[in-house]
């Protein structure tokens, strides 16, 4: 099959420019050079041509940004550093990592963003790429070698690339919000007071079935015993958690099996290991305050992403992963 060629219009598009600059032909040729590497990599063997082209363009823009020390890559790297005091997720950065040079780890992370997929619409498939996949690491090294050879001749582009070609920077600008902890003397909503009285001060309460939850609403919270008053939309759900906190009473369904708590009769370590990652990656699966509380208190020890080494990757990078995949549901109400 004839190798696809990338034309100037596509290159200008990823840079979000209409006007061609003197450096564009060089970087466009470099992107086309990368296509042969991409075609040879098992990482892209089942990908569509458009996905291969996107990869070549992204890697060429990365080199352009690294040479110019401006543009979307620097915007991302600086924003990530402000938030986490490191330049990248997933990878251990040694003294050999130089933020003003090209790096294998940078290239690996760019591949991760290209091969992972978050949900724009509810029905969208979500893909979580293993950042330590051997094919990914091998391919990144090959790309690095090609970039290293071309580094001295690569021209400096005077106009920065798009600030969001790596990812939306707004996701890294959302502040780390403290948990809504209850402090002595705080005025609480009546439902929260009743929850804490029932649980002897424990913020989390667990219920296996809707009938148990409904009984709690009526007998302990003193809600009116009418179907329409007792959250009937939850009738077909199971495995509930109530989180009584300073904001109010939060109710989540189909997640309690993940919480390793002696008071939780629904806890299931095997199920948590197999399905718990969805709390971090599928928008709306778990209210973020509850997820944040579970991680802060060590109640989610079994959570892991669905690939080898996925537990370490998730626990070391869970806040970034949640931002990336949950989008507006991160810290959302």
Helix fraction bin: 40-55%
Q: What's the Cα radius of gyration?
A: 24 Å
Query: Would you report the number of β strands?
Result: 3
| Count of DSSP-assigned helices | 13
- Tally of distinct domains: 2
H/E element sequence: HHHHHHHHEHEEHHHH
Q: What's the average pLDDT? A: 95
Oligomerization state? single chain
Strand order of the largest sheet: 1-2-3
Outline: elongated
User: What summary fits the major beta sheet?
Assistant: 3 strands, antiparallel
Task: Detail the poorly predicted runs.
Answer: none
Structural features, described:
- The chain is mainly alpha-helical and 333 residues long.
- The protein is built from 13 helices and three strands, in the order ααααααααβαββαααα.
- It has helices at residues 8-14, 24-40, 49-68, 72-84, 104-115, 134-150, 170-173, 190-199, 210-219, 269-275, 278-281, 288-296, 310-326, and strands spanning 204-209, 238-244, 249-252.
- The chain has a three-stranded antiparallel beta sheet with strand order 1-2-3.
- A hairpin with a 4-residue loop joins β2 and β3 (249-252).
- The model has no long low-confidence stretch (mean pLDDT 95).
């Amino acid at each position: 099959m004839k190798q696809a060629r990338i034309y100037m219009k596509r290159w200008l598009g990823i840079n979000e420019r209409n006007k061609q600059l003197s450096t564009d032909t060089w970087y466009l040729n470099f992107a086309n050079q990368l296509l042969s590497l991409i075609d040879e990599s098992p990482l892209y063997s089942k990908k569509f041509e458009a996905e291969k082209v996107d990869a070549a363009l992204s890697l060429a823009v990365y080199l352009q940004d690294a040479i110019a020390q401006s543009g979307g890559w620097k915007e991302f790297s600086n924003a990530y550093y402000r938030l986490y005091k490191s330049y990248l997720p997933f990878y251990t950065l040694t003294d050999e990592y130089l933020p003003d040079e090209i790096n294998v780890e940078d290239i690996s992370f760019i591949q991760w963003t290209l091969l992972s997929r978050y949900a724009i619409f509810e029905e969208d498939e979500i893909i979580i790429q293993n950042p330590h996949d051997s094919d990914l690491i091998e391919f990144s090294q090959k790309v690095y070698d090609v970039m290293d050879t071309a580094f001295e001749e690569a021209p400096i582009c005077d106009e920065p690339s798009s600030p969001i070609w790596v990812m939306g920077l707004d996701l890294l600008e959302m502040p780390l919000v403290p948990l809504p902890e209850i402090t002595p003397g705080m005025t609480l909503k009546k439902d929260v007071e009743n929850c804490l009285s029932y649980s002897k001060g424990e913020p989390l309460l667990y219920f296996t079935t809707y009938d148990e939850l409904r009984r709690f609403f009526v007998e302990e919270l003193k809600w009116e015993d009418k179907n329409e008053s007792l959250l009937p939309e939850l009738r077909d759900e199971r495995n509930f958690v109530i989180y009584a906190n300073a904001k109010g009473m939060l109710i989540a369904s189909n997640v309690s099996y993940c919480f390793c708590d002696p008071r939780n009769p629904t806890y299931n370590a095997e199920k948590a290991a197999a399905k718990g990652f969805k709390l971090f990656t599928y928008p709306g699966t778990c209210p973020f305050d509850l997820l944040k509380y579970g991680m802060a208190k060590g109640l989610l020890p079994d959570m892991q992403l669905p690939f080898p080494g996925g537990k370490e990757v998730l626990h070391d990078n869970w806040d970034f992963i949640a931002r990336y995949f949950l989008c507006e549901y991160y810290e959302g109400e």
